[in-house]
Amino acid sequence: MEALTPPDAVTERLAAALAGMFVLRRELGGGGMSRVFEACEVSLGRSVVVKLLSPEVAPGVSVERFRKEIQVAANLRHPHIVPLFSAGTADGMLYYTMPYISGESLASRLEHSPLFSVAEAVDIAKEVADALEYAHRLGVVHRDIKPGNVLLEGGHAVVTDFGIARAVQQVSGAPRHSLTQVGFVLGTPTYMSPEQGSGDEIDGRSDLYALGCVLHEMLTGAPPFTGPTMQSILVQHLVHPPPVITRPDVPEALQDVLRVALAKAPDERYASAADLRDALRAIDDRSLSREVRIAPPMPIATATFAVATSTSGPIDSLAVLPFEGSHKDSDDDYLADGITESILNKLTGVSGLRVVPRSSVFRYKGKDVAPTVIARELRVRALVTGRVVQRGEKLFVSAELTDAASESQLWGDRLTRTTADIFSVQEELATEIVKSLRLRLSAEEKEELVRRQTEDSEAYHAYLRGRHQWNKRTRDAFMNAIEHFTEAIERDPAYALAYTGLSDTYNVLGYYNYLPPSEAYPRAKAASTRALELDPNLAEAHASLGYTRLFFDWEWEGAAQSFRRAISLNPGYASAHQWFAWYHLVTGRYEAMIASMRVALDLDPLSLIISAHMGYAYFWAGRHDEALVQIRKTTSLDQGFALAYWPLGAVELYRGNGEAAIAAFRSLVTLTRGAVGLGYLGMCAGRFQRPDIAREALESLEAAAGTRYVSPLDRALCHAGMLDIESAFTWLERAFEDRVSDLVRIHVLPWPADMRNDSRFGALAARLKLPV
Q1: Distance between CA 583 and CA 547 in Å, rounded?
Q2: pLDDT digits (tens, 9 = 90+) for 17-49
Q3: Please, which residues have CB within 8 angstroms of residue 487's CB and are 6 or more apart in sequence?
């Protein structure tokens, strides 16, 4: 074995001290904190890295203390973390060893190739975030995430030096506020969070900020903040917004992720590395290019069409349009919808294939729109269309797959089966579609294509009827859905998806006060809990449980845990991101709310409810102009969509446009037939000196209370608008007792100042355990 050449005084001293254990081969580099060597471990004959800490870092400290400080880091075992082998002292110098990783560091890669494709940058950031999530869960904060500590091996990222910065700081006894030690104790200024640069206590969110800096550098070729001195860089981290990324191929969803990760205050960043990782996972398969495109951007419509109509390689985007039945509301209509949704869900699990969600494709049901127009609007390459007819026990299904670019049929088939064979129909169609798309499936994906939630065809038919009713989104339809889901469960008590349908139904009934919350939500929770007992990996059930935890149990972190689990199991489940955004609203993290809602909207761009909630998000963040733009987008999709008028009324109210606000809330009440919005109408009318309208709204609520449950919060809002503060608090207390859903956003509702300044208001918020 060749020894290191040429040696200097330090390496000669180190080589002599390590003789018999390691043979130094070459110096790999280093910085103010250490010198790094490749070495051969004599006893095992393997290549390792030896890192020698600078002598001034820990003068006079025993190796035992150093070992104790890095013990936790040494026990980390994760595919994206370089483990520590050993630590010790050599002639008074501290060192530690790690595996030798072939490849290069991210820093080296940035030097000779400063711009990464968006997809590759996101892939690297996802893997680093995954490593951080694991380490943070075990209580280890890295403290020095930077390109030099990210190694690239075999196309994957591995993070090195986990926990070393803290170990060195503890051993050296360096004061937290000492900036003379920043380079090797507190981190690297270019990637250092504002709180770390200020010498404050830090947690895992500091690592997320640093990762945001690294991701920004991969996308632009430079870190967000640079300067001639360490102090000038730290000041920029504290006070300057990060530069805007102007690359045309960086999607808005990724821009939002970076805005949250690089927020100045830790509370405004992602709450965990898992949240950041899942946000990146949710966007990477939909809109990321595998090549760097720095050319001037084409007009949006042209660029979108060019992507959608490329005819080379396997087809990577698809929409399953609603299958036709023989006529509306017939038995085969629910079957047509059910088969459509089943095929869509099966194809969603295929990696490398973007499948448009149900809420977007079902907007085309019953409409005569040219396939090329649909493909352009949905940004897809291929379309699946079909027809279902049931005659007695016979089921006739036809389907075809069309390449929208060439307008040519890629595959088509006609099947005749019995209604009991509905499972095989869906499995056969999904399998043939995948074959025609020229996609390669893993063994797990092939199993998923033919996996059944139940073997009872009658239970499945009942479930399809339940979902068909659920999607009508009316109170009567929800009650019908409960009957069908219950029938499915009675036929197959192990049918997890039917329990999830039941949970979703009761959640909505509770949220919109169609049933008293105390009646609806416990049933929702029991159903989702049972679903997870039957299938712990059912993403929809985790999301449903999170919904109940958020809006009824008021278990904020429990809700977040459920939403994160749902997203990790199915990053493409738009509703999970949408509901997670509500969690961010409740906890006052508005930029994270916008980022989560943006992911949901990117996943399901034609969903009316998600589009409207995107308007909510902008409104609550104080970005009123953007809120109005988003609301106009929603109403352009469907002028009669009632829930778009809540954010519209809210924006106009806060802008002082009384007549416009009252008109918006009137539309909300009219379109929901008085089920939603009377409280907000009364509040708004009272605030703008229209007590006649406020009294009328209150009278309508009192009259409705004789036939249905009426939310005490609506009555509190009306009384507050008329400045009847005592009555408002009386009804607000009743709302607390009933656990009315909208209490979770008590801070952002338009209460008059007399009410907000009352000590009872703050006391109620404290009982909700809401952040102040």
Answers
A1: 9
A2: 888 888 888 888 765 567 888 888 888 778 888
A3: 459, 462
What contacts 444, CB < 8 A, 6 or more positions away?
none
Burial 409-424 (b: 16+ CB within 10 A, else e): ebbeeeeebebeebbe
Phi-psi map region of 96: left, alpha, beta (phi>0 left; psi -120 to 50 alpha): beta
Residue 236 has pLDDT above 80, yes or no: yes
Angle between helices 712-721 and 691-704 (to 10 degrees): 160
Task: Sheet containing 382-391: give its strands across.
Answer: 354-355, 317-320, 382-391, 394-403, 408-418
In the predicted structure, residue 344 carries a pLDDT above the cut 60: yes
* Alpha-carbon torsion angle 199, 203, 204, 209, nearest 10: -30
Q: Is the dihedral of CA 502, 507, 513, 516 positive or negative?
A: positive
Asked whether 57 and 168 are in contact (CB, 8 A), the reply is yes
Q: Where does residue 1 rank: exposed (0-12), middle (13-18), buried (19+ CB within 10 A)?
A: exposed
Query: Strands, E, within 146-240: which ranges?
Result: 150-153, 156-159
Strand-pair partners of 51:
36, 96
Strand order from edge to edge, sheet including 93-99:
22-30, 34-41, 46-53, 93-99, 86-90
| β 156-159/150-153 pair status | antiparallel
Burial of 199 (0-12, 13-18, 19+ CB in 10 A): middle
Maximum average pLDDT range among 255-264, 371-380, 599-608: 255-264
CA distance 682 to 700: 10
Confidence of residue 296 (pLDDT cuts 50, 70, 90): very low
Structure tokens at 264: 């100045």
The residues that bridge with 390 in the sheet, in sequence order, are 395
Read off φ and ψ for residue 648, nearest 5 degrees. Answer: -65, -45
Extract the tokens encoding 485. 């889901």
Residues contacting residue 343 through CB under 8 Å, at least 6 positions apart: 320, 384, 426, 429, 430, 433
pTM assigned to the model: 0.67
| CB 35, CB 27: distance < 8 Å | yes
